[in-house]
Amino acid sequence: MNDLSAMELPKTGIWLNAAPSTLQDYRGRPLVMAFVNAASVWCSQRLAEIAQWQARNPGRLQLLVIHVPRFDFEREPQPALKLLRRHGVSAPAILDAQWEIWRKFNVEAWPTLLLIDAQGQERERIVGSATDLERALNGLCEGLMRPLDVEGETREINAEPILPLRFPAGLVATDERLYVADTGHHRILECSHNGRVLRQFGVGTADMVNGSAAEAAFNRPQGMALVRDVLYVADTGNHALRRINLVSGQVDTLCGTGRAGDPVEGVLSQPWDSQLNHPMDVVVADNQVHIAMAGDNHIWSYDLGSRALRWRAGAGANEIRDGSGHLAAFAQPCGLVAVQQVLYVCDALGSAIRSVQLRGDLVQTLVGKSVWEFGCEDGERTQARMQYPLALALGAESPLLWIADAGNGSLRTLRLGGGVLSTVDLPRRLHGPGALALAAGVVWIAETDAHAVLRFDPATGELSDVPIDG
């Protein structure tokens, strides 16, 4: 047991959403110091698990989040805070831009949780995600005589504005319709191109419920894919693959239990026969729903005919490694498009664009080098660099791959075949673009951190807001 009672936070830390305080201010009640990188879904999942425990045990535990940046853009307070809030984090958070708090407390990996008792003693240190967190938190709070009045909890400052959308992170567009995953409001919107909301799927609170459009519930839905009258949804917060019948409005679940876990290969007699792990995007090809599974760094496929779940590619390690199927490695795959038996994958933590041959599952890297190499450079794909890209779009007849380069706040294009990466000339910088779609001759952009949807016309260079009225 380490005595942390005399230790304090370095003054270099930047408080993001709460008034500055000291570790002494937290004395008297158990505290979890969570060292995380907000761009990592492994870290966000750990924070979600703590928040769920706190909801079941109000007033018993304090949480202090220390965000330690991986990318350059995360060293700025506003983007760092936006990343945390995308995942629903509202606990007091500090930006450790120079890694000083990390070094002072001898942290070596993300995520690391320091479990500190009411007397300032470190009771346990949890690294990674293998430990039974429920047991550890119960043990830390065992014997606590009186929970803190929840009304006395630290309140966030500089709250996000109340707008029709909240961190939208999924888009599908047709010649007449625009489907928006309103991620922070836990719903899917069907809109006209001018932003008028025609239908809402989901009640708007985080839950996992099947049923009609007015009864169903999602939890932080993100990527979507439309095939005829069916909209497939990566219901990220529920760790599930969902389906919306656009004719009847019915929502059902194809796979997932509502909790993160290791997927099970094989035919699923029931949707809950297999868990999923942080699905972030989906695309349909060859009657299969291909899933970018960010939580286990794999690409999975769900066969719509046989209901079989199959592990296609990725070894699980957080790396950029080419090869066949399970020998390859991804670094948080989060965006997908498919054309002509090729799956294109956006690797967020690798700042990379990958391809998967659907016949043979061969994985190759188009742009990107490793999980620690990133930047903002145009040119031949072997020299070009991106920073934390989150989404892709590809026209049916065009060899141009559109990329939402979130870390650089830009829209990029990669010419397939020729391999040249270019930055699109926009009137202004984008704020955390998290989803793209192509239709009606324009590029639709989910400007996630600005809670907005944009319309970009490549012919004129005009960038305009789509005023969602929902």
Strand content: 35-45%
Radius of gyration: 22 Å
Which strands sit side by side, in order, in the main sheet? 1-7-6-3-4-5-2
Instruction: Specify the number of helices.
Output: 4
Shape: globular
**Count of DSSP strands:** 34
| Biggest beta-sheet profile | 7 strands, mixed
Query: What level of helicity do the residues show?
Result: under 10%
Distance between the termini: 52 Å
Q: Are there runs of 5+ residues with pLDDT below 50, and where? A: none
Mean pLDDT: 94
SS-based class: mainly beta
List keywords for this structure.
5-stranded antiparallel beta sheet; globular; 470 residues; 34 strands; mainly beta
In short, what is this structure?
With 470 residues, this protein is mainly β. It has helices spanning 41-56, 77-86, 100-104, 133-140, and strands at residues 2-3, 14-15, 31-36, 62-67, 93-95, 112-116, 121-127, 170-173, 177-182, 187-192, 197-201, 221-227, 230-235, 240-245, 251-255, 266-267, 279-285, 288-293, 298-303, 308-313, 323-324, 333-339, 342-347, 352-357, 362-367, 379-380, 389-394, 400-405, 410-415, 420-423, 433-439, 442-447, 452-457, 462-466.
Can you walk through the features of this model?
- This protein is mainly β and 470 residues long.
- It has 4 helices and 34 strands.
- The protein has helices spanning 41-56, 77-86, 100-104, 133-140, and strands at residues 2-3, 14-15, 31-36, 62-67, 93-95, 112-116, 121-127, 170-173, 177-182, 187-192, 197-201, 221-227, 230-235, 240-245, 251-255, 266-267, 279-285, 288-293, 298-303, 308-313, 323-324, 333-339, 342-347, 352-357, 362-367, 379-380, 389-394, 400-405, 410-415, 420-423, 433-439, 442-447, 452-457, 462-466.
- A 7-stranded mixed sheet has the order 1-7-6-3-4-5-2, covered by helices on one side.
- The termini are far apart.
